[in-house]
């Protein structure tokens, strides 16, 4: 066999290997997509256990561990229940009012000076009022379908409660057995891999834990600030807007733009002056206060994903798993980054000959 044929044979096997790995990865993603609901429930359980573990340790100073776990879960579930009752229900009611306002805008534009002037400008551009009316009806139909899809969700509260109880139950197991499992990984695994495992767990606890707790705190602060500001400015649908701000804070890079644009749209239903004032306010709050002051201090020690990686993770998560994929994109990418970083650090320590110490530059003589 000639050297030339050996080269092509090696290239063929390389391509075949790559195609095999791609096919295996595609099969894994397909399997995950079929069992995504239990994976999400387990993920929520682990997240809940991780978030309330400090509260469990606090209560454990004054009572037994089991009572501390149960009390912590009751406190968290009570807070979540109150939020769902007062905020989500109010947000759904305000969403229905918003549909009524938009419908009145489309059917009776003569009653709204701002909308009427906008129609006149569009007619001068060649867009007839009939075309605008048809488009508006389509928007109304879409919004009505959206809100009609919300009420079955509320009527299915029994299923939701079962899911919450399942999440809480699994979270209890995570809290009870979590330390024992972590200790097993730290001290019972083979010595060859123990250094990497310990480094990965330490890095994960430090960076990802700070990220999750920091994101929850940051989302809470920003939703309160933006909600209060919108209420003072006179923006309608404040509860709905605050809920949107809270959820969008978990979407990396573009979440603040989404919530800001939605808030300006809400303000336009009142007047263009209100929309202008709110636009300036939300730009200062989200661009200045959050971006320059709060986020660096709250998330300073968390996982630092490059913006390109954040956007890529967001696109992949949204494409594969929808809204939940967008919300979990950053934590999942952070876990993967932590794993790769820990592996790289351990490999550098075990192969110092591959990374020679650079000679320090001599300082110029004065």
Descriptive report:
With 366 residues, the protein is an all-alpha fold. It has 2 domains: 36-188, no CATH class; 191-349. It is built from 11 helices and no strands. It has helices at residues 3-34, 36-59, 65-107, 113-124, 129-155, 157-187, 191-233, 238-248, 255-268, 272-298, 307-350. The chain is globular, with a radius of gyration of 27 Å. Keywords: Cell membrane, Membrane, Transmembrane, Transmembrane helix, Transport. It is a multi-pass membrane protein. Pfam families: AI-2E_transport (PF01594). It is found in: Cell membrane.
How many H/I helical runs? 11
Shape: globular
Using only CA atoms, what is the Rg? 27 Å
Poorly predicted regions are 359-363
Terminal Cα span: 66 Å
Helix content: over 70%
In short:
With 366 residues, the chain is mostly helical. It contains 11 helices and no strands. The longest helix is centred in the C-terminal third of the chain and has 44 residues, at 307-350.
List the helices and strands and how they pair.
Layout: H1 3-34, H2 36-59, H3 65-107, H4 113-124, H5 129-155, H6 157-187, H7 191-233, H8 238-248, H9 255-268, H10 272-298, H11 307-350
What keyword list fits this structure?
transmembrane helix; 366 residues; 2 domains; 84% helix; AI-2E-like; transport; cell membrane
């Amino acid at each position: 066999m000639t050297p030339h044929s050996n080269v092509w044979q090696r290239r063929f096997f390389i391509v075949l290997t790559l195609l095999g790995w791609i096919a295996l990865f595609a099969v894994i993603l397909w399997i995950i997509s079929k069992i995504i609901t239990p994976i999400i429930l387990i993920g929520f359980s682990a997240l809940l256990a991780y978030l309330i573990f400090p509260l469990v340790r606090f209560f454990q100073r004054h009572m037994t561990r089991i009572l501390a776990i149960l009390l912590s879960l009751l406190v968290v579930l009570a807070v979540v229940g109150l939020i769902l009752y007062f905020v989500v229900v109010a947000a759904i009611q305000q969403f229905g009012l918003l549909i009524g306002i938009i419908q009145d805008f489309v059917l009776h534009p003569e009653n709204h000076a701002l909308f009427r002037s906008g129609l006149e400008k569009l007619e001068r551009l060649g867009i007839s009022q009939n075309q605008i009316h048809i488009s508006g009806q389509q928007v109304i139909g879409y919004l009505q379908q959206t809100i009609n899809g919300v009420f079955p969700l509320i009527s299915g509260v029994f299923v939701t409660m079962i899911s919450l109880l399942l999440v809480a139950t699994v979270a209890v197991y995570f809290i009870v057995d979590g330390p024992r499992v972590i200790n097993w990984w730290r001290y019972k695994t083979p010595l060859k891999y123990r250094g990497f495992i310990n480094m990965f767990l330490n890095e994960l606890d430090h960076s990802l834990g700070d990220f999750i707790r920091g994101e929850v705190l940051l989302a809470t602060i920003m939703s309160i600030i933006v909600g209060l500001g919108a209420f003072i400015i006179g923006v309608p649908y404040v509860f709905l807007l605050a809920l949107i701000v809270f959820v969008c804070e978990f979407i990396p890079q573009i979440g603040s733009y989404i919530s800001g644009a939605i808030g300006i749209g809400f303000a336009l239903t009142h007047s263009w002056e209100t929309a202008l004032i709110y636009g300036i306010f939300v730009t200062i709050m989200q661009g200045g206060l959050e971006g320059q002051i709060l986020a660096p201090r709250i998330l300073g020690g968390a996982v630092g994903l490059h913006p390109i990686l954040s956007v890529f993770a967001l696109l992949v998560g949204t494409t594969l798993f929808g809204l939940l994929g967008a919300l979990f994109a950053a934590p999942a990418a952070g876990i993967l980054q932590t794993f790769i970083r820990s592996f790289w650090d351990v490999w550098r320590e075990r192969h110092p000959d591959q990374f020679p110490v650079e000679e320090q530059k001599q300082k110029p003589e004065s």
